[in-house]
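Newbie here. three chains, one complex. Structure please?
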Amino acid sequence: MWKLLKNDFLIERTNKKNMIACLIVAIFVFGFFSYTKIENSQRLIDEKASEYQSVASALTKFQTADAMDYGNGSDLYYNLLQQQRYVVNQSMAMKVDRPQLYLESGIKLAELRANAFDMEGYEKVATNLPSRTENQLDSLFYQFMDRTGMVVTQDALSFFPFLLDLFMVLGSFWFIFMSIFSCGILIEEFHHTSLIKGYPVSFDKYVLAKCASSMFWVGILIAEIFICSLPFIYFYGLGDANYPVAIFDGNFKVIPTIEYIGIALVYIILISIFTVLLSVILNVLLKNMYLTLFVQLLLFIAPSLFPSLVSLVPFNPFNYMNFTNLLNGHSLELAEPVELEMLHGLIYIGISTVLMLIGVKLFFTTGKLKKV
Amino acid sequence: MRAYFKFEFIQFLFNKKNIAIYVILLFLACFYALKIAPSYDPIEKVDRDEIEARFLTREDFLNNVVIDENSYPLTRFAAAIYPEWNEYDKQRLDALDSNRLREYAGSTYKWYEYSDYMIFRNGNGLLYYNPRYYTAGNLYATEDGHYAYMYSASRYKGYAQGDSELSMDVFEERTALQTLQRLLHGYLPIILLVCCILFTADIVLKDKRNLTVIKGFPISVWRRLVVKGGVALIGSSLTIIPLSIGFIIVAIQHGMGDLNLPVPIFSYEARAFTTITMGEYLFQNVLLMLFWFLLLISLLLLLSIQIRHEFANLVLGCVVVFAEFYYYVRGLGFVKEIQWYPSSYVQVGQIVAGYREYLNNSASLTFENGIAVMSVCTAIILLVTLIISKTKRFKYL
Amino acid sequence: MIELRSIGVNFSGRDILKEVSITFHPGEIIGLVAPNGTGKSTLMNVIMNYLQPNSGKVRFNNELEYTTKKNEVKIHKLLSMMPDQSDLYNHLSGKQHLKLYSSMWDSNPQLIENTIAALGMESYVNKKTGTYSLGMRQRLCFAMQIVSDTQIMLMDEVMNGLDPTQVEIISQILVKKREEGKTIIIASHLLENLEKYANRIFFVKNGNLDSTEDIHRNLGVNGNMVIRVPEGTPELKQKLSVAFPELDIQLLANSVILIEFPKNESGTLENISAFLNENHEHQTFSVGKMTLSDLYSKYYH
């Protein structure tokens, strides 16, 4: 087993694929940096300006008569008017740099919105306003900031905020990247089946060694992400590792940036192991690198193509492959809402990994391999 | 050469991966036609109730308002602009009631033009476009509304002046050709480009597995690459076949549309729309797509003979296609010369329609520039490939 | 006609081919014989221009050289090398392979059927090559080259994995091709067989191509007789050398002792025979003309 692992390392060390993957990750990190830099400057102010417009346009859906007499106007209309006021407050607060006012208005705004969801006629204006989940997350964020006395910043370029954004983006497509990276994991070897057929180790050990050497490279890629981000410390500083992020992990809650990054790393590693094993199995079954890739991608997008699948099969590990959406509470906003919990995701992915391993152990032997 | 082409083409068609791509495209086309297209809910739809409600409210206001020196300025403003606006709404309602579609198109054109003028020039903070543009989180709702109203105005003008057969499906852009137009405006080009990358990624490198069989063929490496590129190009173009199944399904549901339907084209320089026919629009799209295919294929051929690894072909091809997502920020064209990057032209339908010019505040992201940039890039890549393949020391795989 | 002009190839300082100059003519079958790694395949790769020699050049028909990629194509029209059986397209049938080669070199399509018949491939030629046995694949590779019908054919280990009848059939086809005026260059281990149809045979050693005729002459063994003694031991060889110091005696790797003596000295044969009967009991020995294998063993000893 160890000798096999050593062999794999030797083979992988000279594999161009790993070099190219490293290159791509570096391009990604620096590209993302330039993207953040252009996008960043006035994020919060711009958001508030657009929110104002959205509320204002929601208001146009009401007969102007409502405005004349608050007593007779609908509750929702009144609520929206107040929302508009607080949005303006927030925007002004950012412009004149009064973070406390921003937070207070934010809390009130979130309260108003929370009330609005149950008011009559809400469906009419639903698209103009944040969803229940988004509002919940906002509300938690404001309350946390208010409670701890932290200061709202717009900074996204220093180390930790940058990493946070980076991992949020990575969360959406890490599975895709891993699929492309690992889809040919055994195919090369299948061209020399006579070689592996004769190895004096069982197929599952062989697969384990393969996975281990792939995971070693995944580790290098992840390390590379951090290393490539290091230079930004010099230019923009470390940033605040404890700056809060609101997430949904079964409950709505606020966690520090560093914890989010930690969760992301755990997910990234689990997803990588899962994908590599899936590639192994599909490689053996389909004997074609591209078919493996296509099947993986189809499985990945299936929950988006058929959203009802998610509530039907909540234990499908592919529901959890996009952990950014998962932590955003995306599943709560489906036509049939499901509470996908962060921890369950880890468990389901873990269980599927173990099941796949057992499957490999039970059903595959090197002797049965056929040349591609 | 012909024999080699035939050989490559047959290999291409019987390649499991390529068959899978066609099957997946067929699935997606049917999925779109059966599930997504029917639930298409355009913002600018023909909604008699909405028109009537607006018309009656304003009519009521105009009938009751008394303008004198004490009137609130906003009331004066409303009283000044509503009569003409309402006139158009009235015409639209009458035309709808008597089913005179061309007349409806005529008055709708005027309605959009007037609305846009009022909202965009005079309506800041008072008048709004259709509320559905102001979705939560949209930072550019006004700009979106402005574009959509100008677009609709131009479109309805075209309907009114043209001689195409009109219907509600045409007005709401649901016919097969218009659906295609919307798709080209959306993600279809990117999907096709990714397919092209997948088709081309192994077209050279698969020879590694049968090297001694093909190595001695009396054909130069350059010609082999040309043949392979040609096969990949034809293969990429054949994606039309599975897509056309979806097209036919939409056509059965909502009608085919008509190649003379007007398609509004935005010009950043004129800040205004002109229309071209659907046929011309599609032709330009196909042309730009073909140039994209050529660019990607030549790039992947070059990578194939230099880096010689399929993974590199896949990811570097994708980097070119998806690069725009990185540097794209609305209005960027104003500060950066993004018209020189081929990746700025990846949204083929939006380039042809001029929407990219609008989004990027740049007069240079035109169809013609696209063709020019792409052909220059392709020519350079091909030239490099030619030189490499002709050097004496070069080895094919 | 192929003309090699002082071809030199070295890999990391080691000379594989040294100043090889030689000409192969139409209507000739050339045999190349050498142990592994001595440069047979290198020579073929140089002829194909898969490998650029460090010095020297290859000239075809007195006019074509690998100076440009254009010429390479022109040369490849005259030239084919037998594909490796592991490189066949497993999902294509044998016939499709043959058609491919026929169409690539634009040869007479009739050749396909003729070759299939000549090689007795009818029963499986329409099946996918993925199902073929090694011998079937080898025959297909040979057939592909025959179908390409090029003026010059390079064959590396053409007889590998074939049974004796197949070897015979292929030899006959080779002879027929020679009569058609083809130049055929064969690298092979099957020496006896090669001796039968090859016009010239070369051994490759230390980067040189040595013609067997020259070797015969240089070693002074032209027309010599050989006695073969199986199950020889170093002691026996020692004794023989002492008893017959004037003769060339060798102990081969397969424990055969070769005793060489000039043809006209029949007295020697009797002496040796008597000596052997005395010292090497219960073992028969054979007397015969010197074969290619004997020469090979001697040469690479």
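Moderator note: Chain C touches chain A through two residues (CB under 8 Å). Chain C has two domains: 2-85+149-216, 221-299. Thread marked as resolved.
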